[in-house]
Design goal:
Elements: H1 16-38, H2 43-54, H3 56-66, H4 72-83, H5 95-113, H6 117-130
Helix pairs in contact: 1-2, 1-5, 3-5, 4-5
Length: about 140
């Protein structure tokens, strides 16, 4: 198992929104690490590029890209997140994008807490292969 903390955790027992809480940060870290390793840009440019890739609309697009590549178990986790009802509305996203983004975050939280780092890397590689050059 590859995680930062050595605390026992069964992600199958956590709510979708708790998984999304962790998955949001996991996705953000992958994006930031990718950007920093691509180029030594000024931090404000790194921030702008990261924000563009982690906003709800971009996460929703990423989720739609990944859906055909997901296993049945992964699809189950994605659906749990997509169908979860948060107690607030998205500020800068459509309701649909917000739900898809939450599904993606739930999936990433589940995989991370399950120690499936190689699978997370594979999914992020798939996203990198399908994104346009305009984000570089």
């Amino acid at each position: 198992m590859e995680r930062f903390c050595d605390i026992p955790c069964d992600p199958a027992q956590l709510s979708a929104l708790n998984l999304a809480f962790v998955g949001d940060t996991v996705f953000d870290l992958f994006v930031r690490e990718t950007l920093v390793c691509e180029a030594n840009r000024p931090v404000h440019l790194q921030h702008d590029r990261a924000a563009a890739r982690v906003k709800a609309a971009a996460q929703a697009a990423a989720a739609k890209t990944l859906l055909p590549a997901l296993t049945e178990k992964e699809l189950e986790q994605f659906r749990r997140g997509r169908n979860a009802h948060a107690n607030h509305k998205a500020k800068n996203a459509t309701e649909s994008d917000y739900h898809y983004a939450t599904g993606l975050e739930t999936l990433f939280g589940y995989l991370y807490l399950n120690g499936e780092i190689d699978r997370l890397r594979a999914l992020m590689r798939l996203l990198d292969e399908t994104k346009g050059d305009d984000t570089r």
